[in-house]
Amino acid sequence: MNLQGVVRWLLPREDVFYGLIEQQGALLAAAAQALSELAAGAAPEQVHAAVRDIEHRADALVDEVEDRLAAVFVTPIDREDIQGLVAAIDDIIDDIDLAARTLALYRLPRPTRPMLEMIEVLTKAAELLHGELPALRRHDYARLLVAARAIKQREKEGDRVFRAALGRLFHDPTIDAKALLREKEVLEDLELAIDKCETVAERLKHLAVKHG
After folding, report:
1. Furthest C-alpha separation in the chain
2. With bands split at pLDDT 50, 70 and 90, how would you rate the model's confidence at 43?
3. Interatomic CA distance for residues 141 and 18, integer angstroms
4. CA distance 132 to 203
5. Model pTM greater than 0.70?
6. Which of 3, 51, 162, 210 has the fewest CB atoms found within 10 Å of its own CB?
């Protein structure tokens, strides 16, 4: 056990950080679920307003984590790992907000089928992250590894949908340039959010290897 590990073992720890990480996971799942309301016919403006509210709450939680990290001496895991994990989850929420904002900005009446497929992939990845983050508190690092691999598979699935959708767009002789650019930008925003899920998965894998 290194010196930092000995200090953590001897002194009381601020385990509240596990709760904050889990709260950020809950906000991620909520943001993805709000975006998925598009599949039920919700107006893009309404969806963006809901996601934006969640995004503001997620930003406030990041600030709270940073304030608490500055105020405590001993943390349950390395402070840079706490900060990095919470920030990485916040990045996904930011990209969900970006996708919702783009849909509202371009006034797309309804997402295309590939968009809805990507939103479904994103929602499943977010729910998976939300469900598995408590394993960190339990020190169930084997489960974190399994979760990280499952999220990676979701990312691959999203990538396949994204590339197939782009291929269809650029080979469709009936689509005009404006529509192509609109759809391409929304698809790219969704792909970015799904990619960020993989970034969180890599952080969880790092924690599992580091502490397991």
Report:
1. 69
2. very high
3. 14
4. 13
5. yes
6. 3
